[in-house]
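Open question from group meeting: does this chain pack into something compact, or does most of it stay loose? Before anyone orders reagents, we agreed to write out a predicted structure and look at it together. Recording both the input and the output here so the notebook holds the full record.
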Amino acid sequence: MKLLLHFLKPYWKLCLIVLLSVTVDVTGALLVPTITADMINLAVTGGSLDEIIWKGIAMLAVSIITGGSVLAGSWFCSKASAGLGRDMRNAIYDKTLTFSSEDFERFGTASMVTRTINDINTIQQAFVMFIQMVLPVPIMCALGIAFTFRISSAMGLLILGIMAFVMVIAISIIRKASSIFAALQKLLDRVNVILRENITGVRVIRAFNKENYESGRMEKTFSDYAVSAIQANRLFAALDSLAMVSINLCIVAILYIGGNQVGAGKMAIGDITAVTEYAIWILFYLVMAQMVVILLPRAIICLDRIGEVLSLEPEIQDGAGGRAESQAEPRAERSPEGGPQGGSGALSSGDIRGEGADEVRLAAIDGRQGEGGGLRHERGTADGEEAGSAGGRLPTMV
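Structure tokens returned:
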């Protein structure tokens, strides 16, 4: 999570705007059924037409503001998600440039491709869905229950009970989904490895008549991935079915209890419509949040896989100071007689001066041991004139 917050830090303003737009959207979604209930109550109790028209104008204004807020929030959320994915991919690319071959092979080419493309796509999708479908849930539940208790405490308790039932189901399904999605990502890496091996080694496979073996190996890998994906989809199907049953049972209970309270004079008939809409909105957001929350374990695993790459210390580290941009070449100083100091024509380690002299002396010693007589002398020029004598020859190392 710290890694995600690190990459989201440059986009905190966009996230704040998205949060405000989500709040406006949720508030508008709950105000519309409230205004609708007031219009129904005015019509039932003999209210004037002007009052009903003003309520309709207010409903229209709320709808326009809510729609604009949704569009703005979606645009800013998409912009933040695109920037998040771009920054993550750039960070992975920059990090891999510092890896040695051994560092890179710790993950493998197929796994690095999966982490750079699929894993970051999953993180981006989870981010967008979390902002648009999970973040509004606490606001929706708080406001919806508050509006319901304002109408009837019995209705409020009913919605709280349905919410608790749906959340218990969600928690149990999420626990099962975490392990399935963890295995799914590893199987996806394996699929990429098998495909890459078969594509790059197709000539070797044909040469050794291994087509049947490789086909069976690939089929087994795809079958394992399909089994895990089917298990995940079954969880989605079970959650969707239970959620729809919960919503319908809640509506039936609201109509039954609300009808009795209207008959007893404790509620207005329009309030039943408002409470029904509150319950549908709350349960709808809960169901959508559960669908997203099931994907969150997969996104968390992908985020951990990205963190493994970014947190790896390269095996080969650059030095603290590095080499100087301009280094003076080691040189051999000449004696007044025109040759190297000592006049013998042979270069000794004491004749070498300047930066890098220690390395050159070591090479000179190695040259004496390997070739038995110091360094070769190549004919060169000094100050633009050709050196004609042995003393004028420039020493070079072998």
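Observations to bring back to the group:
The chain has a mean pLDDT of 78.
The beta strands are 331-332, 352-353, 377-378, 381-382, 385-386, 394-395.
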